[in-house]
Structures are given as structure tokens and as C-alpha cells.
């Protein structure tokens, strides 16, 4: 399958609202990701410029960045995902209800969880997310020719499904690493144990190739992205049988300063 054909087919089968229907209840995988992000970001300095890369239509990751960010940019490959995020940011009636996820973020942060705190976190997200844009992980300049580098780049569960081979994934890590300021941080989450990514839309089902990333390859990817090997930190979760993937791995590292 050629790249243009892949992009067209992926856009045709991925529907944000159907995807978000799976987020109506917090599951172990989402809690794992939230917990890792809260712990990994704790201790980072305030006033960061952050990028949610390949965020899909999902905002719980952005919620964890709020305490450290002066400004958050959000990008995705699909315009429909950006439209879904924009709908929530604009407080439109059909925007997804992220209240349970914001509650969990606050709980993991050890903060008071009540309606006022949840409203403040939502308001902070709406205030701090200042840019929505298209991205392409496989492009050498993933955001186009925007000369922006970030103090923190987060790429959750997108790099592994954007690549069909290990060499492609390493190139993606090099591309995304170029968006991180020297001394900044890169946080990447991936599924493991799968080589296909399947979508079911009504009566249709399409499978796309993805990469199964070992710890060794993940480590190599962060080195390829320009990160300090001494700062690479992993956490892993095994998931129940019956899924295409067998686990999740979330990793953070700091980019070298020279």
C-alpha cells in the first residue's frame, strides 16, 4: 500500500466519535497512561511550551500537562480529530464529556477532586491550548515548515501505528525528536505485541500494519531522537488476552543539550 493510499484509507475508516465511545468508561490502560504521565511530569519546571503530537480526538493527556504548561499546541494527522477537539474547546453541546478523565488526573496528582476543581482544569485546558494543526509523523518536518521547538513533546499511541517497519519508526522518532528543544523532554507511549491495527466501522473492517517494539528498539528510538541515554525511563502494562496487542509501554527521556 502506498503512502497516499494509506492516508486516504485511514481517514476513511477512523471516526472520532466511534473511537471516543470506547472512552465512556475509564479502563486500566487509560489509568496506566494517566498515572505514568502525572509521575513523569512531576518535577518538571513550570511555564513550558508543550506539544501533544498525534493526539487523535483525546484530551486526557493534555489535562496532565496543564500544571506545567504556559501554552499547549495540539496536532493530529486527521482533520476530523482536530474538529472533535475544537468542538470541546469551544464548549459546543456535542463535545465529549471528559469529566471522569479529569477527575482521575486530579486524583493521581493528589489534588482535591470536586466539581470546582474539574471546572478549573477544563477552563485551564481551554485557555492553554492555543493551536490546533495537522501533523505527519513520517514527514521530515512533521508540522510543516513551522520553526517551533517545544520544551515537552508527548506522542501517545500514534508512532507505532504510523510506522509499518522498525526503520520507519526510527525515522519517526528522529522526526519528532527534531521538535524538542535541547534539554527538553520527549514522552512516547506505544502498544506492544501487535503487527496490525484494526478498525471496525459498521460492517466494514480494515487492518493496517504497525510495529511491535521491543525495549531494545524503544531505547534505540530515543537515542535516535537525540535523547540522553541516562534519562530514558520505561513503564509497562500487560493487557488482557483477546486484543491485537499484549501490552503498553510508556517512556520519557530528556533531549541532550548539545
Describe the protein in words.
Helix content is 38%, strand content 26%. The protein is of the alpha/beta class and 258 residues long. The chain has one domain (3-254): Vaccinia Virus protein VP39 (Rossmann fold), CATH 3.40.50.150. Strand 8 (233-238) and strand 9 (247-254) form a beta hairpin. Helix 6 (99-108) crosses helix 7 and helix 9 (166-177) runs parallel beside helix 10. It starts with a helix and ends with a strand. Mean pLDDT is 90; it is low at 1-6.
Throw out a few tags for this protein:
10 helices; two-stranded antiparallel ribbon; 26% strand; Rossmann fold; single chain; 7-stranded mixed β-sheet; 258 residues; globular
Topology:
Layout: H1 3-13, H2 16-21, H3 28-41, E1 48-53, H4 60-65, E2 69-76, H5 79-89, H6 99-108, H7 115-128, E3 129-134, E4 150-156, H8 159-162, H9 166-177, E5 180-192, E6 196-201, E7 204-209, H10 215-224, E8 233-238, E9 247-254
Parallel strand pairs: 1-2, 1-4, 2-3, 4-5
Antiparallel strand pairs: 5-9, 6-7, 8-9
Helix pairs in contact: 6-7, 9-10
Amino acid at each position: 500500500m502506498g503512502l497516499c493510499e494509506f492516508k486516504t484509507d485511514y481517514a476513511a475508516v477512523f471516526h472520532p466519535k466511534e473511537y471516543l465511545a470506547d472512552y465512556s468508561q475509564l479502563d486500566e490502560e487509560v489509568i496506566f497512561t494517566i498515572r505514568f504521565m502525572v509521575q513523569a511530569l512531576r518535577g518538571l519546571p513550570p511555564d513550558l511550551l508543550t506539544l501533544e503530537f498525534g493526539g487523535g480526538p483525546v484530551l486526557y493527556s493534555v489535562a496532565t500537562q496543564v500544571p506545567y504548561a504556559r501554552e499547549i499546541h495540539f496536532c493530529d494527522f486527521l482533520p476530523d480529530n482536530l474538529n472533535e477537539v475544537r468542538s470541546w474547546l469551544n464548549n459546543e453541546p456535542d463535545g465529549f464529556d471528559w469529566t471522569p478523565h479529569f477527575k482521575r488526573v486530579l486524583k493521581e496528582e493528589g489534588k482535591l477532586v470536586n466539581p470546582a476543581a474539574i471546572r478549573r482544569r477544563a477552563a485551564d485546558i481551554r485557555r492553554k491550548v492555543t493551536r490546533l494543526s495537522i501533523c505527519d509523523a513520517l514527514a521530515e518536518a512533521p508540522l510543516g515548515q513551522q520553526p517551533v521547538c517545544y520544551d515537552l513533546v508527548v506522542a501517545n499511541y500514534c508512532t507505532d501505528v504510523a510506522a509499518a517497519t522498525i526503520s520507519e519508526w526510527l525515522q519517526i522518532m528522529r522526526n519528532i525528536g527534531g521538535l524538542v528543544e535541547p534539554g527538553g523532554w520527549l514522552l512516547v507511549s506505544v502498544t506492544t505485541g501487535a503487527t496490525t491495527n484494526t478498525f471496525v466501522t459498521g460492517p466494514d473492517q480494515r487492518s493496517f500494519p504497525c510495529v511491535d517494539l521491543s525495549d531494545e528498539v524503544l531505547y534505540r528510538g530515543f537515542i535516535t531522537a537525540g535523547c540522553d541515554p541516562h534519562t530514558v525511563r520505561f513503564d509497562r502494562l500487560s493487557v488482557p488476552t483477546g486484543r491485537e496487542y499484549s501490552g503498553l509501554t510508556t517512556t520519557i527521556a530528556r533531549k541532550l543539550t548539545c
